């Protein structure tokens, strides 16, 4: 798919609300088809406790970059709707609009939460602990982290995490960042929903605790 300037300028109206600043000099390295608006949106962030590198936009399909879109839904503004089949998360806005974020989702249908939940906790640079099921499935990979891994640039939860609870109990399902931006739009995780670090930082500051999240069912065709 050829990346065109028209494709990449769709997110320009979001720059004001996202708090982005002027284009940095290093953005020219991202390539001739990257619009200044998107380059600024996904530029490196140097105000965090740990570095957030610029996203190499040549490795992300432009349809998965943050943009405001028309979105018909019965859900109230402020709700997050995750569509694993399409690899999108929507933050519902008034008047039939939504902010759309590209996501990476679980590899296997059985790993994925579905239904309604609320964000009961939010964390910046969260600590990560693999679940018992993850350790049981892949002990060599996850066993060394059974005691947890502190937040940081190498933590698989990235810069932010939103923790989903249902009926007062942790679902062990999160919306979180990633240090592997090229995986957005794919089925790679162990069930959680991953966003680009710049996108989860943006979503994190837009939604409060007790925000409703709706996760649609995953079809077997979408995970193949």
UniProtKB/TrEMBL annotation:
Presence of the UniProt keyword Transferase in the record: yes
GO biological process assignments: cell wall organization; peptidoglycan-protein cross-linking; regulation of cell shape
CDD domains listed in its UniProt record: YkuD_like
Catalytic residues identified in the record: 176, 192
GO cellular component, one term: extracellular region
Domain L,D-TPase catalytic, first and last residues per copy: 78-216
Superkingdom of source: Bacteria
Pathway in which this enzyme or protein is active: Cell wall biogenesis; peptidoglycan biosynthesis
UniProt keyword annotations, A-Z: Cell shape, Cell wall biogenesis/degradation, Glycosyltransferase, Hydrolase, Peptidoglycan synthesis, Transferase
Family annotation (Pfam families): YkuD (PF03734)
UniProt-recorded Gene Ontology molecular function terms: glycosyltransferase activity; peptidoglycan L,D-transpeptidase activity
InterPro entries: LD-transpeptidase, LD_TPept_cat_dom, Transpep_catalytic_dom
Family listed: Belongs to the YkuD family.
Name of the protein in its database record: L,D-transpeptidase
